[in-house]
Amino acid sequence: MPDDTTEDDAIDRILADWLRERPDLDASSIGVLGRLLRLANQVRAVESSYFDEYGLTLASFDVLANLRRSGPPHRKTAGELATSSMLTTGGITFRLDRMEEQNLIERVRTREDRRVVYAQLTAHGKAVIDEALGKHLDKQRQMLSGLSLSELDQLAALLKKAEASVVAFDVNATEAVGQGS
């Protein structure tokens, strides 16, 4: 596996520009967060290309995967889906309407409380997510093939730590705003 990390990339050039123009500032965070944003955009572009084969978007794939990993009977309410996915409740409702039209999910009411409506995978939806998930995981492995297993473990641990840092920052910022600071 070639190591391309020694060549300058766009982020290195941005950092060099800031160092030249504002040497008084520490722009090193761009080296991490800028690369994460660029990486996320590149991954999304690759994912979109193969989700299209299944008539899915990233959002519908996320909903189907969420339902599939929940175990039988593979159903959740819109609120439960919003809590455990990357969408808002409004976004979930819109997505569920489209997915119902595609016969990927069906809406099911409970006998105990007719107000509670579940989104449940159909047999077709289960077949689609099972096939799409296999391809998705294979493509992810291919995209990360430039990293060794130990590098993947190390990167995953560092990203988990970075996410916790960002979440802690957000909580602190929210508390400061709430206190009028």
TrEMBL record:
GO terms for biological process: response to stress. Residues 29-164 form the HTH marR-type domain. InterPro entries: HTH_MarR-typ, MarR/SlyA-like, WH-like_DNA-bd_sf, WH_DNA-bd_sf. One of its GO terms (molecular function) is DNA-binding transcription factor activity. SUPFAM superfamilies: Winged helix' DNA-binding domain. This is MarR family transcriptional regulator. It comes from Pseudarthrobacter sulfonivorans. The lineage of its organism: Bacteria, Bacillati, Actinomycetota, Actinomycetes, Micrococcales.
